[in-house]
Write a structure and sequence with these properties.
Layout: E1 2-6, H1 13-23, E2 28-31, H2 42-50, E3 54-56, H3 60-65, H4 76-88, H5 91-98, E4 103-106, E5 109-112, H6 127-133, E6 141-143, E7 151-155, E8 163-165, E9 172-174, E10 179-183, E11 197-203, E12 208-214, H7 218-228, H8 232-240
Parallel strand pairs: 1-2, 2-3, 5-6, 6-10
Antiparallel strand pairs: 1-11, 4-5, 7-8, 7-10, 9-12, 11-12
Helix pairs in contact: 7-8
Bound molecules: zinc ion.
């Protein structure tokens, strides 16, 4: 079986479509949350995901867009984009987001948006944060999103220190050898200085999780955002992968 691992689509339809085209045929998509927020096409992205056999967990932007999370902790542009998103969501999209679980298990992975310890909010940005989370899930591996930066944290054996790195496109890891936490990077708003959409593929035949990048027409998304009056900073950052 072949699984597409995607996170932080953030209503960027052009990026999502490019990832799906690059993925080719998959048995299912595993989506790590933040389907909406920031970008111009929330309903379209939800509808497109729903056409696939998929699993999806809830992200902080998904939760905020349905009014279940206060945007006081969001930066001003993110909060503005959330209130715009809320006004745009169809009833069907709203119900879909409201039903998303915070945590799922798809062996050999646990799926969460932020971290297994705090699925909605915690950012796993370094080895220390990762280490604190290894005891918070029981599967061999855990998939997270939220930072919009590809990452791999491995604990060679229980009690040993955690080693982290930023996987480059084409890098891979064999799942099941050592416990690990992996982040595919962000589809719709990458933040590692590479504006290309990020994702990963998990192949059950080889047991390999592999990181990928693909270009998408950034200008199409930016123009849509300009037409809709979304914040300028959110439009500009897409070109820089920041
Ligand atoms: Zn996000």
């Amino acid at each position: 079986m072949r699984y597409g691992v995607i996170a932080d689509i953030h209503a960027n339809l052009a990026a999502f479509e490019a990832v799906l085209a690059d993925l080719g045929e998959v048995d299912a998509l595993w989506c790590l949350g933040d389907l909406v927020g920031y970008g111009p096409d929330p309903n379209e992205c939800i509808e497109l995901l729903r056409r696939y056999n998929h699993l999806c967990v809830m992200g902080n932007h998904d939760m905020a867009a349905i009014g279940r999370l206060d945007t006081a902790d969001f930066n001003p542009e993110a909060a503005q984009a959330i209130s715009w998103t809320t006004s745009q969501l169809t009833e069907s999209s709203r119900l879909y987001l409201a039903a998303l679980p915070e945590r799922l298990v798809a062996e050999p992975f646990t799926l969460v948006h932020g971290s297994p310890r705090s699925p909605i909010w915690e950012y796993i940005t370094n080895e220390m944060r990762a280490a604190a989370n290894f005891g918070q899930y029981s599967t061999p591996a855990c998939l997270v999103g939220h930072t919009h930066v590809p990452a791999l944290y491995v604990q060679p054996s229980p009690g040993e220190s955690v080693l982290g790195r930023v996987p480059a496109p084409g890098d891979s890891v064999e799942v099941g050898r050592a416990r690990l936490i992996a982040n595919p990077g962000g589809v719709g708003q990458p933040r590692d200085g590479d504006p290309r959409a990020a994702y990963a593929i998990y192949d059950t035949d080889s047991g390999i999780l592999e990181w990928h990048r693909v270009e998408y027409p950034i200008r199409v998304t930016q123009q849509r955002m300009r037409d809709l009056g979304l914040p300028r900073r959110l439009i500009e950052r897409l070109a820089f992968g920041w």
